[in-house]
Amino acid sequence: MNRQLLALLIVVSYFVLTIWFIRRRRLALASSTPEITNENSATLQTADTLVAFASQTGNAQQLASLTAEILAAAGLRLQVKALDQVSSSELANYRRALFIVSTTGEGDSPDNATDFVLKTMSGDANLQSLEYGLLALGDRRYTYFCGFGHTLDHWLQQSHALPLFDMVEVDNGDAGALRHWQSQLSLLADTIEAADWSAPAYQSWRLIERHLLNPGSVGGPVYHLKLEALEVHEGWQAGDIVEVGPRNSERSVAALLNALGLKHDAPANESGTPWGEWLAERFLPHSAAEIEALKQLPTSELSSSLKLLSHREYSIASLPAEGLELVVRQVRNTNGELGHGSGWLTEYASIGDKIALRVRPSPMFHPPAEPIPLILIGNGTGIAGLRAHLKASIAAGQRRHWLIFGERNAAYDAYFSDELQALQEEGVLTRLDIAYSRDQAIPIYVQDLIQQAADELRVWLDDGAAIFICGSAKGMAPEVHRVLLDIVGDHILANLTNTGRYRRDIY
Predict the structure, then answer these.
(1) Residue 46: what pLDDT?
(2) Mind listing the domains of the chain with CATH numbers?
(3) Which H or E run includes 455?
(4) Which of 10, 57, 101, 269 measures 20 to 30 Å from 474, CA to CA?
(5) How far is CA 312 from CA 40, 225, 237, 243, in A?
(6) Would you give the end-to-end CA distance of the chain in angstroms?
(7) 359 in helix, strand or coil?
(8) pTM (two decimals)
(9) Is pLDDT at 372 greater than 70 in this prediction?
């Protein structure tokens, strides 16, 4: 009897320990206010983020729950509600709202959004204090693809709400688009611990070139990378994105192997994957307590307790004929370690190493259907997406381009300066304005240059130009958006969005 009791205690202890490890991030927040509330909760007034869904079949509601899970795990206080339970006055009380909406029939709203459409969207609202993100679910076989999502986006912009990033369209459950949404959520929540809802089907590429673009810069090192495909792959066009499968450093993997008493070449699972290879692609524990928890697990259970590293996204800086090029800035986490994606691409991987990578179409940032003048705006590594659009537009025969770009210092951060100068001399880069923010006593930013050139910007737009923005979502993009609103107004900017003449790739 004592043996049976002891065995039962061991099983229960193991179960509790495993649950504790898997949910360690939420347990760290156990003393805070509950993250997810409902409309009758006493903590309603403490929620500053709304997750609202409009769902006909339940898919949007499920994605709303997954969205809330990521944000709540990061400590954000939020509510999850059906859209017809939300009023414009309530929206105005939130700092941030994330909408997950499907479309039924030919552009119609789901049933649980009918009241919102009739009572709220039919009138004017002032949502100038609201930031929002929008995930639109649809099917391209229908004429009005993501029709309700577009209608909602148009209404939000005309109500003065500020988009955190451009609407994410999902065609018939496309996993790549959902990963992009999840990537935006991770940036919003400032977390790297959320595993992909569905892992990308990576292909093998090889890193063939890498050089530092900004030696001596006060900013993080920025690298220009070139890769070649090792197998047949789908092509890409300007505006598309790569999903990269990151890896941990050999030092981090070796340290954990040593702490767990495991051998690098020993098999980690039934397929025979060595422990060193397995851990290179997994989220590793951060603390001594987490490592100790892993030590208590049987070796047969250890591998399944570690999540696969989530993908990292980067704008493509080249056209297919030139090979795949990226511009990547080294990012460091709060613990001082390099980020998983930038660390792998810029330091841990050696020239000639294989890189797990997938090209993902990004229709919302694709070039215009016909060559038209382009106003290209961005900062930092956003030069990557702008460079690809500039190249594609020139190749299509357009000769009128205006680049407005921002970085820190001209002496160190003048990316692709020789290339841009040559395009100016050829007459295909009509105007180049660069804001080097730290080269004068009073900083000058991209939005300042736009404001100064407001009259000419209106002329370009009257001539049919499109605006493409690529770069930071936390500084440049929202400030540029506000300046554009001042220059052209809500209705014109919303119309530019709906007609594909205002597009953004921000991160």
Answers:
(1) 61
(2) 32-189 (3.40.50.360), 203-247+310-360 (2.40.30.10), 367-506 (3.40.50.80)
(3) helix 454-462
(4) 101
(5) 38, 15, 19, 6
(6) 60
(7) strand
(8) 0.86
(9) yes
